[in-house]
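Task 17 of the worksheet. Students: predict the tertiary structure of the chain below and write it out as structure tokens. Keep your answer in the requested format; marks are given for formatting as well as content.
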Amino acid sequence: MVVGYLVAWAVAKARRIAGRADTEVDAALDAGMDRLHDLVAAKLQGEPALAKLESDAVAGNKNRRTRDRVQLAVEDAVEEDPEFGERLAEALAAVRQADAGAGATVTGDHGVAVRGDVDIHAEHGSAAAVAMRDVSVGRPPDPS
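Model answer:
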């Protein structure tokens, strides 16, 4: 979740530079994401994956390996410094609260955000999901 907000921070920063005007709610979300970014950037100072994540986000590139590297670096930092973990959890909670008020949602690759109830079920050997990729049901065809 932290990495998703870091990507959103970089994209939002690029939009602000391009001249997007913020509303009050966007300003609260921006302030929370700035705090989250600054906290992580200070802790991961010199981490090349964080700089790459930010530049990839601005360019619109989705590099799963870079996101994974940043996620692992954040997890390592939390394990090594529980106080950082507490500050990170507080910053993340503030961003989530502001995000709920903004009407915007941050998801990871192939993520889906749903507000309200969702009822998904599969019947008769089928597959069901809000979103799914390659799925094979039943016996595959003979390759000959």
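Marker's comment: The helical segments are 2-17, 24-43, 48-59, 64-80, 82-102. Residues 17-22 have pLDDT under 50 and may be disordered.
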